[in-house]
Structures are given as C-alpha cells and as structure tokens.
Amino acid sequence: MRGIRFWNNSTGLLLALTLALLAPANALPARSVAAQGDELPEPIELPEVDPLSITGDIAIAGSSTVEPVTVAMAARFSDDGYTGNIAVAETGTSAGFERFCKEGSTDISNASRAIKDSERADCAAIGRDVLEFLIGIDALTVAVSRDSFVDALTRSQLIAIFTGAVTQWNEVNPAWPAATIQLFTPGTDSGTFDFFGEAVLGTQGVYKGREARFGALLAPNPTISENDYTLVEGIRGSENAIGYFGFAYFAGNEDTLKAVIIANDMTYDADDNLIIIPAEQWEAEGIAYVAPSRATAASGEYLLSRPLFIYSAASTLRDKPQVAAFVNYYLTNAEEVVAEEGYFPAGTEALNAARQTWLGAMGLAE
User: Fold this and answer.
1) Model pLDDT for residues 209-257, shown as the tens digit of each residue
2) Cα(101)–Cα(272) distance, rounded to whole angstroms?
3) Which of 46, 168, 220, 330 has the CA that lies 20 to 30 A from 149?
C-alpha cells in the first residue's frame, strides 16, 4: 500500500505519454467494432460540471493500475477549480472493494477487474446499489530488464515460471544461463494478481478455484508488492528478474524495461486439462507471439488484455453531489486522461454506456 494522497488545488505529477485513441472491439466487455464504413456513435454529453462550485471531500481506494488515472483526474478537477480534498488510497482492487462494500468508507472504488458477485452482495448488505463504469483498457505487461536475455515466452512457459515448476532460466531455454529466476508479482489484494492467475493459469481443471490459482502463484515465494513502482525497481535491477504490471508502468519505464511478447500455446482437452499445442501446429491454429499494444488490446489478440473500471453506488451519487460531479467529470474526460496515463481509451460505445449509467442513477435518463 502506498498510502493516501490528498489533492486540493495543487497539480499532480502526470506521466508524459501520448497514445492514440483506441477503436472499440467486442473482445472485451461493453465494447463493439463498427464495420468499415459504419458511422461511429455520437458521444453522449453529460451535464456540464463547474468544479469551482463543488464542495465536500471524496474518498477513493483500490487498484494500483487505475490509480494513476484517478490521481491525474483528481489533479485536473482541482486545477479546474475544485477546492475540496480527494483522498486516493492505493490498496489493490480486492482491498478497495473491502472498503467500498463492507466498510462503506469510500465513495469510489478503482478496479482492474470486474466486481465479484460476493462483493456485490456485500455492497447490497450495506444498502449500496453498485454502479460500474468502464473507463479504459489495459494490456497487462510481462516485463524484464533491458539487459535480460528473455524476449519471448509461451503461455506454458509463463505457467512453469510463475508456479515454480522451473527455477533456473536454463530450464526454460537451454540456451539461457543457469541463473535463478527472480519473480516479482503484485500482492494478492491486487486485481492484477487475480487477473494474471485467471488469464495464464486458466479457470478450469486444477486451477478452477481462486484458492488453487493463488496457491500456485505464491508457491515459489515471489517478491510481492502492492506498489507497482517497487516491482519496476526490482525487475530493472536484475537481468534474471521477471514480473508483471499494468501497461502504463512499462510505458513509463521503457528505457530500462522490455515487454515480453507472448504466444498462447495452450488449450483444454475434454477433461478440462491444459495441454500444450506443439509448435508445428501453431500456424494451422493461428498461434503467434503477440506484443502488448493498443491494437492487440483492442482486438483481444494479446493474452493479457483487460478492462479498467471505477465503481460507485447510486445512493452515493444522490447523497453526495461532489461524488456525482467528479464521476461525471471523470467520464467526460476519460478518453484523454486514460491515454495520457499510458492506457487505452475504451471507445465511444463503452463510454456512452458508462455515461448512460450515470444519467440513470441521477434520474436524468431519457
């Protein structure tokens, strides 16, 4: 946990990243691809917000992946005149939902995965009717040092590495040195850790249960931190290190890190067991190494593409005008700020759905 940041009229540090807008695709929730020649939907315009007129404080906690976007949005809101405080705690997605759905101590929850049914039930138990807002797309990045000999890995190799089935790099590839693999991973409260387990280990067979995936990923005793900057420092400090985090943390440190390209060489048999597809069958199966990028995240071609969210509750928006105003402002400026922070905008259709959710909660839907 990095702690809590308080924002008033001072500006926050923004990442100097410029990325083009992402066309929506149906590989991820609430997004679709327009056929060539089709007209893109018109953006829904929310009621204009005057930050200078907004009073009251806002409490936010959750995902370290979404945190840079929310911090940048809070800084912009303050720059435009808001004089209250926005406290942003980087706790990890699961711990963020604990605060939002069990304690009721936060107004907004940052999340790098969708809310679970059990968490939604916790929210309902304290009278919170959950609102989900998709704000962007991430290509979770497996990273190594710029000096590393590793450039590409298959999904089966990722499983072997991150579950401790292999502990030396020459066990992955005989051409690599007989050096101990140093693992760096987000903490178990992180949506990034949760998502990596589902996407890489899968959700069938021996890894069907969340506890089984967590146990497998923790078995090799990796270095764990909820702070992605700590992971960045550890990975770039050794050619034998490997880890993963949101794309923005790679993009902001591309001079010292490499993104590993990944090939999904696995499928399930009739008994839900993961099996490796032999290399000689790759071409027929359409398997290839894929780098994380806005295009591969959009298409879903990249194995570790995922949606990014903020959550609130209808009752919170109604009872706290400052929260309603900030969510409105967030959705209005999401495309620009998400791109500035190194992630990929969700696209007009997805943002329209999020804006429609806001309008519905405020009783303004047509």
Assistant:
1) 999 999 999 999 999 998 999 999 999 999 999 999 999 999 999 999 9
2) 34
3) 220
Q: For residue 323, what are the CA distances in angstroms to 2, 119, 178, 319, 329?
A: 23, 21, 54, 9, 10
Query: Is 268 in a helix, a strand, or coil?
Result: strand
C-beta neighbour count of 357 within 10 angstroms: 19
- Does the pLDDT value for residue 78 go beyond 70? yes
Which residues are within 8 A (CB) of 149 and not within 5 positions of it... i.e. 6 or more apart?
169, 176, 177, 239
pLDDT digits (tens, 9 = 90+) for 298-339: 888 999 999 999 999 999 999 999 999 999 999 999 999 999
Token pair 């809590």: residue: 4
Q: Where do the domains of the chain lie?
A: 4-136+308-361, 141-291
Q: CATH number of 141-291: 3.30.420.40, 3.40.190.10, 3.40.50.360, 3.40.640.10?
A: 3.40.190.10
Residue whose C-alpha is closest to residue 157's, from 234, 235, 252, 262: 262
